[in-house]
Design brief:
This protein is 77% helix and 0% strand. With 209 residues, the chain is mainly α. The chain has one domain. The termini are far apart.
Length: 209
């Protein structure tokens, strides 16, 4: 009876050997899977960052375009503030009117950044300063959009007021500088500064990606 229950040393060795092979196989599999996963995550991170870089480049074009469109308005604003109302030239006012009043509603995209945030890949960025700078750049786009929209609405309200006062059957020319330039003293300059600062931050971020 005892002889039947006794397990031979050879059997124990075989069991240990077989168990070791299974453990080693599992360890190798986990190692390979982990390595493949890490390589996949690094590849995904690079793809996301490349997409964000392209998105930032497109947003930078919009910022530069908006800044260029604003510069003539600033010159016009400086002109009407440099002289008394009676000394302002009516033809100059009329010529600049189309520069002051066009309504431009610029839009910035954040699709790539939003996908990056929801992907879980953001945790792979070891440079936390870089990550914080990236958040700040997109925050700037949000603030800039709010300023542009407010500027858009200000222009539109002033246009409606002035159009309601014009007798198109008698005189369609301007006799005074547009209301917009008086209601928004300093706004064009402030907007331009915001555009320039955002452009600088965006260029710095692009160079890091």
């Amino acid at each position: 009876m005892n002889a039947k229950k006794r397990i031979s040393a050879q059997t124990v060795v075989r069991y240990i050997r077989d168990f070791s092979i299974v453990v080693a196989g599992i360890a190798v599999t986990l190692y390979v899977n982990d390595k493949v996963t890490n390589q996949g995550e690094k590849r995904d991170l690079r793809l996301y960052l490349n997409a964000i870089k392209l998105e930032l480049e497109e947003n930078l074009k919009t910022v530069d375009m908006a800044a260029e469109m604003l510069k003539p308005t600033i010159k016009y604003s400086e002109y009407i503030r440099s002289l008394p109302k009676k000394s302002l030239n009516k033809d100059t006012l009329n010529n600049y009117a189309m520069i002051v009043y066009p309504l431009n509603a610029y839009t910035f995209t954040a699709n790539a950044f939003e996908m990056f945030k929801s992907s879980g890949t953001m945790r792979l960025i070891e440079d936390k300063d870089l990550l914080q700078s990236l958040w700040e750049v997109y925050d700037r786009f949000t603030i800039l959009k709010e300023l542009i929209d407010w500027n858009f609405q200000t222009k539109w309200e002033d246009m409606k007021k002035e159009l309601s006062q014009i007798d198109f059957g008698v005189n369609v020319g301007l006799i005074e500088p547009p209301l917009y330039l008086y209601h928004a003293i300093g706004l064009p300059e402030g907007l331009l500064l915001a555009f320039e600062e955002t452009a600088e931050k965006t260029k710095g971020m692009i160079s890091k990606l």
